[in-house]
């Protein structure tokens, strides 16, 4: 689940201290985080496990879990969404107290906490028993070698949402490649149509995913050798992607508005953008923001993500959250039971996808006829799960995230801003980004390869 563009997580001081031999976490001074529960505790005599999570339907999910368990009860709190929660969790990690037993984290930020020893390896508590419930890519995103640091819940296989009314009016064919996407964008502009898409500086994860789709490997990091990191942000595939979008922006074929803002949403509602390159959670986000509820109802459709090489299709992901057990958990075994079982029952998963709260990663849902054949109202009854999102999720191979995702996203955002203002080319952005990240990594004690 992705709702925030850039989130603050890992302080440079904490990272440098970790690499120098200090470890965050430890439960010797753990505070009791089960005193103020948002939810009702069904069995007062059972031990409680504290959980921080921001899914909109968590109240129902927690009740489902507590009603089904007599050995443990969840004490749920909303500590904030994304950035707000992460900031509080980082403070608790550095203090060695105050963290919950279980915490909801987005997959691209797990490594930030793994390197601080703030998360528990769940493989020793039976995590691999549920490995079969997830695609190889989803499981890779929460693992380091044989260690498993979180249990996946939802993901963001990427696709291209488009305005059917705009495509029909201007006779635009659905692009299957990025070359076709650029040609369609030019055709639409020449016909006096709206922008074909948007290059928002505040969504650096999108460009990172598209770099991976092109074959770039921006980072290579293995927790087993936690002082070593490979950074390849100026590879030719990375440059190709940055140059491609810089070219679209320079020609005025795409807009340059920050996404997740009122201005952007009003533009989506008003037909200002012909496409929205996004993830499987986007229909829920957009409809929740008021898109598709008025005159634009029924105008949206979705198609597979355009490919760089049509003969070698690559599926990529944006967003997705999981439940991790923190090193401060008072009873790691019970906390692992919660992380593995929370939002994993049929009732919770069904509520999640029917309300468009999540795009579930559990194969029990992805293989169910009800989910597969569900006509998505936002897409005018299109069977988007069967035709687009499920194939994209099952084809996703996973991604190597860096141990400093937050800092990287901030630097890429700065480079996209300069691209959008015409200050630099994609090549220059890639070179600057590479130099900045190598300098930063070295300053934090990493050996950069």
TrEMBL record:
Matching Gene3D superfamilies, A to Z? Answer: Periplasmic binding protein-like II
Q: Which InterPro entries match?
A: Bact_solute-bd_prot1, SBP
Keywords (A to Z) from UniProt: Signal
Write the signal peptide boundaries.
1-16
Could you confirm whether the keyword Repeat appears in this record?
A: no
Which PANTHER family does the record associate with it? ARABINOSE-BINDING PROTEIN-RELATED (PTHR43649), BLR3389 PROTEIN (PTHR43649:SF14)
Write down what this protein is called: Extracellular solute-binding protein
Its source organism is Sinomonas terricola
Taxonomic lineage of the native organism: Bacteria, Bacillati, Actinomycetota, Actinomycetes, Micrococcales
